[in-house]
Design brief:
single chain, 14 helices
């Protein structure tokens, strides 16, 4: 008989992975839409207005998919993770409620104004509606990240005699330092997704010699924003996040790096295969001393390996965690390099005639989505075996009365439904790409 907790984790992991394909795009586009609207307002250029309208439509499609795929996760807190919800609801319920009441309604209300209210609002009012949409979108992201940060690094709480978690210091909970760092890192990664999507559309139109103004604008904004965001993802946000993991989740750092033995002058593994049975990293290619510096700012620093912790505290699937982390880092480096080349060609005025790079931009569009998902998997698998790090184990949070057959059956249902939704979304995006930035009545 399979442990029901396994299938609860599979279902939540599947639904949140599919769901997060869309918020990362909307959060990234929200910032870029503000940039498009600001330049359109300053220059009075019709082309920039049309580009903004196109990306508002793409935002709308992604936003709708995010809403549809996000709703089931709210119910899963009660159906699959009832004990976790009962014990921690007094804490995480605060940020989840704030996300719905403040951020989601702000975002959805001003999105409606952006789509239907341009004539009534006028250019300046329409710009401020875009700003409000951006604020709502990123505020929504912050409340979700703050919820997750409590699970990674609990702060601002107390535990009642009945074992439930309660708010002790709302400020410490909401402004958990883990949440602030994770949010900035996450939003820069989302901006990379939005920028690559925008640049890919511009490259696609350029290759087909269509929508020339929209192609030029999308390429310019996507490449510049993508390069800046990709650099910020790595440093300082990713670097600082890594130091926080080293400080508060050292066993996670060891598993992420496939480090089985403790010691100073720790190398950072670039390539290798973790061999948990033999407790070593097979075929490693590593940068000497770099992990010690990344983790503690000292090349000679001692970095604890998995041998410093009891196996009961190791993440449950070290191989999966290791590969997720390295996929995230590897793709992040690749995306930075692609944008650097594209930015150099843009600066020289040759990007629109360098077809190989344009094709790379088109074909690279799935990679930021994959990198973002790999980043979230790294965070979630790295936290195991804890639901609330150091305080509540995953095995103690599942719903005791929901058996594995029910969870597996509904997971298959979600898979079928999401496959249909994915096909519909891609067809609608394809239709918008074909229509491009042509003028429409607002």
């Amino acid at each position: 008989m399979t442990d029901p907790t396994f299938w609860h984790r599979v279902q939540f992991g599947f639904t949140i992975t599919f769901h997060y394909l869309f918020p990362q795009l909307t959060m990234g586009l929200a910032l870029l839409i503000v940039i498009l609207k600001a330049i359109a307002l300053r220059t009075g250029s019709t082309a920039w207005h049309e580009a903004a309208r196109f990306w508002i439509r793409v935002f709308g499609l992604s936003f709708a998919m995010g809403v549809v795929t996000g709703i089931p996760m709210e119910f899963q807190f009660g159906t699959n993770w009832a004990e976790f919800s009962r014990r921690t609801g007094g804490v995480i319920g605060q940020t989840l409620a704030m996300e719905g009441i403040f951020a989601f309604f702000l975002e959805s209300s001003f999105f409606a104004l952006l789509v239907f209210g341009e004539r009534r609002l006028g250019p300046r009012g329409h710009f401020w509606a875009a700003v409000a949409l951006f604020v709502g979108s990123w505020l929504s992201g912050y409340f979700i990240v703050a919820t997750n940060a409590f699970m990674q690094h609990p702060a601002g709480h107390t535990i009642a005699p009945d074992g439930t978690f309660q708010i002790q210091d709302l400020g410490a909970f909401v402004f958990n330092p883990w949440a602030v760092l994770q949010f900035v890192h996450n939003q820069m990664a989302a901006t990379v997704t939005g920028a690559f999507t925008m640049a890919a559309a511009g490259a696609f139109w350029t290759l087909r010699e269509q929508h020339r103004d929209g192609a030029r604008i999308s390429l310019r904004v996507g490449v510049v924003a993508g390069l800046l965001a990709a650099v910020l993802v790595a440093f300082p946000t990713g670097h600082t996040q890594g130091r926080m993991v080293a400080a508060y989740q050292p066993v996670t750092l060891a598993a992420m790096e496939g480090r089985f033995e403790s010691g100073p002058y720790a190398p950072m593994a670039m390539i290798g295969q973790p061999n948990v049975a033999a407790r070593k990293l097979d075929n490693p290619i590593a940068l000497p001393w770099v992990l010690s510096w990344i983790a503690y700012g000292d090349f000679a620093a001692d970095v604890r390996g998995l041998d410093a912790f009891p196996p009961s505290e190791w993440p449950g699937n070290i191989e999966f965690l290791y590969y997720s982390f390295h996929i995230m880092v590897g793709l992040g480096t690749l995306l930075m390099a692609v944008m650097a080349v594209a930015a150099l060609l843009l600066w020289r005025g040759r990007l629109d005639v360098t077809r190989p790079v344009l094709w790379v931009l088109v074909l690279a569009v799935p990679f930021p989505f994959i990198a973002n998902i790999a980043g979230w998997l790294t965070a979630e698998f790295g936290r195991q075996p804890w639901l609330v790090y150091g305080l509540m184990r995953t095995a103690d949070g599942a719903s005791p009365t929901v058996h594995e057959g029910t969870t597996l059956f509904t997971t298959l249902g979600f898979a079928g439904l999401y496959a249909v939704l994915g096909i519909v979304f891609l067809s609608l995006i394809g239709r918008e790409l074909t229509r491009g930035t042509s003028s429409r009545t607002h």
